[in-house]
Amino acid sequence: MPAKKKTKKVKVEKKEQVKKVEEVKVEEVEVEQNMTPTRYSVNVFLVNEPRAKNERIAQINWLAAGDKLVLAVQNPQYTNVLGQMLRSDYATDEGRMYSPASQPREWALNLFKVSKGRLGVGTKRWTASEAKASYAD
Fold first, then answer.
1. What angle do CA 78, 109, 60 make, to 5 degrees?
2. Residues 119, 85, 110, 134: is their CA dihedral positive or negative?
């Protein structure tokens, strides 16, 4: 007679693992920022090209507070000429006139549109960069 095999019944419990997923709500909040510039800055250069690099001699800032132009001179040798430039009306290459007395913001924004050599006073040739805006924090 063949030997009987003993079999044992084992009860196996399976625990189901359930992953809990937390739902995260993302709210978009619009933050209103002041997008009005508080200042425009224009760099003024003495034209030395093609012999040498143009020399930055001043920065003209238009300030929203008071709607005024402020001159920051880097080279004191040109202070008088730059002061006179700050009081002068200019025509852009398109023929539009701008006055620092009555239109200080537009004057600063369009100063770069004046051809090299037509900007400034005296025998030197001048040029200006495009205005860069600054905003309040």
1. 25
2. positive
pLDDT at position 81 is 86
Alpha-helical (H) ranges within the chain are 79-85, 104-110
Q: What is the pLDDT of residues 71-99, one digit of tens each?
A: 999 989 989 888 888 898 988 888 899 99
Distance CA(127)–CA(93), nearest Å, equals 13
Q: Copy the structure tokens of residue 28.
A: 């978009």
Q: How far apart are the first and last CA of the chain?
A: 97
Spatial neighbors of 18 by CB under 8 A, at least 6 apart, are none
Whether 70 and 58 have beta carbons less than 8 Å apart is answered as no
Convert the pLDDT of each residue in 18-58 to its tens digit: 666 667 677 776 656 657 889 999 999 988 877 888 899 99
Element containing residue 53 per DSSP (H, E): none
